[in-house]
């Protein structure tokens, strides 16, 4: 297989990894007003992702760098056309990161609540806008013969884009609630189980609509991997239902694993529906960016492949080691004891 096609799938896997890992970070942040009944419980929730949130975000940096190196034409059209949406995502991520670091610097309740709001907004906006962005890439956007985006931010806020955006927001939120239930105890854990049950129905409805709508788009383009789109959509649906059942019987590890599987196959459904395009043109299909006309030279892709073979396993080992070190539950008693020692 041509290396350009290999890198199309590698970039897809990197985005899958990012959405799975930073996805539950977003979900934890969005859950703060619903599960954080007092400052101790809010600290308990935030501390579940405290050691790993910044490590999870590196996946999007790696994915963006690989996209730039492997598909420069795609990168140029994407970032010039989607720059406002991507800027909002960037600012939201900055606000969220700053809030994690500064929230505990003062004892003022007003100070903490201000940063808590920034955490919620900084989690919800990327969860929504990443879905909008990916949906528009799959559906197609106005691109001229010079491969330049001719639309605006409002062009991206179309029905399919917004539907998929709400879907990713709900999936990430549910995924984060599962993580909170897995990593906490006491009232926070009980409230997380209840919140997950309330989120289940709207998440299933929007996810089912996304799978069907994406299939219709892929079928309309006669996508060569339509069978894979169907298979991944079905697996995503089954994984989502399995996570709901696991949460109902309070099997938190299984619920989180099934939630992760849901996101993996949901993103693959969208990615495979795109193949062999990387950015279809809604102006004229002949103006579309494809894997072949948007890729770098074989020499560049060869160097990238060797770099990935050497360094990617090291990154995975380091991240796995980090999760193993911080695998224990964040208990309320531990937070209270730390607060008592601080005073």
UniProtKB/TrEMBL annotation:
Domain of life according to the entry: Bacteria
Protein name as it appears in the record: Cytochrome d ubiquinol oxidase subunit II
Gene Ontology MF terms in the entry: electron transfer activity; metal ion binding; oxidoreductase activity, acting on diphenols and related substances as donors, oxygen as acceptor
Keyword Transmembrane: yes
Keywords assigned: Cell membrane, Electron transport, Heme, Iron, Membrane, Metal-binding, Transmembrane, Transmembrane helix, Transport
Source organism: Microbacterium saccharophilum
Family designation: Belongs to the cytochrome ubiquinol oxidase subunit 2 family.
One cellular-component annotation, GO: plasma membrane
Gene name of the record: cydB
């Amino acid at each position: 297989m041509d290396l350009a096609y290999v890198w199309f799938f590698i970039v897809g896997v990197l985005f899958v990894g990012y959405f799975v890992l930073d996805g539950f970070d977003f979900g934890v942040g969005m859950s703060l007003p619903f599960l954080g009944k007092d400052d101790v419980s809010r600290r308990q929730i935030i501390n579940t992702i405290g050691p790993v949130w910044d490590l999870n975000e590196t996946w999007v940096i790696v994915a963006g760098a690989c996209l730039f190196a492997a598909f420069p034409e795609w990168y140029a059209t994407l970032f010039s056309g989607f720059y406002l949406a991507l800027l909002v995502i960037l600012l939201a991520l900055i606000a969220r990161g700053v809030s994690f670091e500064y929230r505990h610097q003062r004892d003022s309740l007003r100070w903490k609540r201000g940063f808590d709001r920034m955490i919620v907004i900084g989690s919800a906006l990327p969860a929504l806008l990443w879905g909008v962005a990916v949906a528009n890439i799959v559906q197609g956007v106005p691109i001229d013969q010079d491969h330049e985006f001719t639309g605006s931010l409002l062009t991206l806020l179309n029905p399919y884009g917004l539907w998929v955006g709400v879907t990713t927001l709900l999936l990430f939120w549910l995924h984060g609630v599962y993580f909170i239930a897995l990593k906490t105890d006491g009232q926070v854990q009980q409230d997380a189980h209840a919140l997950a049950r309330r989120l289940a129905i709207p998440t299933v409805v929007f996810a089912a609509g996304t799978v069907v709508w994406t299939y219709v788009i892929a079928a309309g383009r006669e996508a060569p991997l339509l069978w894979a789109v169907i298979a991944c959509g079905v697996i995503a649906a089954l994984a989502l239902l399995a996570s709901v059942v696991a949460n109902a019987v309070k099997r938190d590890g299984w619920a989180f694993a099934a939630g992760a599987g849901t996101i993996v196959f949901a993103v693959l459904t969208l990615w495979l529906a795109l193949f062999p395009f990387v950015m279809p043109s809604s102006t004229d299909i002949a103006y579309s960016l494809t894997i072949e006309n948007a890729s770098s030279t074989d020499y560049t892709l060869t160097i990238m492949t060797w770099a990935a073979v050497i360094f990617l396993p090291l990154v995975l080992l380091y991240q796995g080691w980090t999760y193993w070190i911080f695998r224990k539950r964040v208990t309320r008693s531990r937070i209270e004891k730390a607060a008592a020692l601080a005073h």
